[in-house]
Amino acid sequence: MNTPEETLDPEDWEATRILAHQMIDDSIRHLDDVRSRAVWQDMPDHVRAHFAMPAPKVPQPLSAVYAELQTYLLPYSMGNIHPRFWGWYMGSGNFTGALGDFLAAVDGSNLGGGTTGAALIDAQVVGWFKEIMGFPASASGTLTSGGSMANMVAHTVARNAKAGVDVRAQGILAMPQPLRFYASDQVHSCHQKALEVLGLGAVALTEVRSDDHQRMDVAALEAAIKADIAAGIKPACVIGTAGTTNTGAMDDLQAIASICKRHGIWFHVDGCIGALLRIAPRNKAMVDGIEQADSIALDPHKWLHTPFEAGCVLIRDAQLHFETFEMHGDYLQMQTRGLIAGTFLADYSFELSRGFKALKIWMSLKENGVAKFGRLIDQNIEQAQYLERRILAEQKLELVAPVGLNIVCFRYANGRSDEAGLKALNTEIMLRSQESGLAVPSDTTVAGKHCLRVAINNHRTTRADLDLFIDAVLKVGAQIEAEAGVKA
Ligand SMILES: *Cc1c(COP(=O)(O)O)cnc(C)c1O
Questions:
Q1: 1 band by pLDDT with thresholds 50, 70 and 90
Q2: Per-residue pLDDT at 96 exceeds 80
Q3: Which residue, 370, 385, 406, sits at the end of a domain?
Q4: Res. 488 pLDDT band, cuts 50 70 90
Q5: What does the mean pLDDT of the chain come to?
Q6: Enclosing domain of residue 417
Q7: Residue 153: pLDDT over 80
Q8: Is the CB of 224 under 6 A from ligand 1?
Q9: What pLDDT is recorded for position 342?
Q10: Is residue 187 domain-shared with residue 109, that is, in the same domain?
């Protein structure tokens, strides 16, 4: 007797259809109401405990699963979809992108490669980024999980190109000289991680000092390169940062490009924050020089507000990119016809199976047009300048770094200069702001000064939100000082 066959398809599609419509209706309400909710709230113990349950053994209706998610998941999200979320550096998502993720899953294609509409959309989105960045059509690229992976893909290609041996076959121990990558001391930590994973070690990253605007000191860069050459070390790659994570500082990309040209060094731009300034009508000149890069990492889940996750890397020399990752098992041989023919996307990435992240980017770019995203970038920069003016006008507040982009670093100082006390005070202001649900700033340290950090990468923020936040900082700062017995 044959065992009855099963499937994951619902027994009752009609009931599923009604429930799915309900989910869409609820989702729209959830976004429409976002401003009326706390940005973030901590989880009560019973909620935490709920997530400690073992793997489900018995089935339950999807409606019950959905009800559970409404109770335990949605109220405890990160809050980056809220207009007053400015912590770390995140995009705020968009509903079309969410639909894109859903529709991509319904299409179901594996973006490892293949002759599918999905693969063409993937290639088209990468092509749009090449066009936006001023890269030639002959360049290559791949969508990644985010900026960390985008930077790592670029560093792998740069390492292989500069290794001096066939590093894929022989490994790093066969390299005739150690390689060096250079970046400013403001570089994102993912670069060190990448070089560690690539077997080059943290020692391969030289952090060049930055100036008082947190930009790479290019004279110090050239001196470091010359000293390494004299010492028998091979300068492989300079990483210019277009918008640092700490303060939004912009390295001098033109100057770095010409140093790289002079010494035959790979020029990589970490544009996770700033590369997309290329589409911002009022601020695009800030990234002049980016088009000269050998590779660029950018992050659609930041200034394009693609729902997590979506990064992208572009490589000028498509052949080097292909030679770094091309590999096919017996079970995956390319054909000239049929489903597996033409360009195979996994030949440009570590990953074989890949999701259809291109669709959410494709849909929202088509719906809004590139120009609208450009205006939103300009809007965030203008809001940062507005916040800077508000801070400069308040005696008790101190601006800690110049505002060049959309990141504002400041602290409640009230004329004090006791660093330890100020750090404790501002940390407490940050935590109370997060815990009250009013706003989510994060913190950092710039040139030895601990400060609040407001990164306005948010299409829902208004100037009124910033006013509300500044008023709260002043009030809470004074409150904490009063609790500690400090005279105002
Ligand atoms: C955010 C960021 C990264 C890391 O990107 P993820 O998408 O978080 O992996 C790298 N570099 C810079 C400058 C960033 O701001």
A1: confident
A2: yes
A3: 370
A4: low
A5: 97
A6: 371-483
A7: yes
A8: no
A9: 86
A10: yes
- Considering the domain architecture, whether residues 341 and 196 belong to the same structural domain is answered as yes
Residue 299 Cβ < 6 Å to ligand 1: yes
Give tens-digit pLDDT for 97-127. Answer: 999 999 999 999 999 999 999 999 999 999 9
Q: Quick check: is 87 in a domain?
A: no
CB-CB contact of 121 with 307 (8 Å): no
Which atom of ligand 1 has the smallest separation from the CA of 151?
10
Where b means 16+ CB within 10 Å and e means fewer, 171-192 reads ebeebebbbbbbbbebbbebbb
Buried b (16+ CB within 10 A) or exposed e, 79-109: bbbbbbbbbbbbbbbbbbbbbbbbebeeeeb
**Number of domain units in the chain:** 3
- Assigned domain for 438 exists: yes
Give every CB contact of residue 162 below 8 A, 6+ residues apart in sequence.
179, 234, 236, 237, 266
5 CA to centre of ligand 1 in angstroms: 47
Is the CB–ligand 1 distance for residue 349 below 6 Å? no
Contact 136, 130 (CB under 8 A): yes
| pLDDT tens figures, 129-151 | 999 999 999 999 999 999 999 99
pTM here is 0.97
340 shares its domain with 459: no
Tell whether the model's pLDDT for residue 487 goes beyond 70: no
- Pick the residue whose CA is nearest to atom 10 on ligand 1: 147
> Is 270 close to ligand 1, i.e. is its CB under 6 Å away?
yes
**What's 395's domain CATH number?**
3.90.1150.170
The answer to whether residue 214 is domain-embedded is yes
Dist. CA 395 → ligand 1 center (Å)? 34
Q: Confirm whether 90 is domain-assigned.
A: no
| 182 and 319 assigned to the same domain | yes
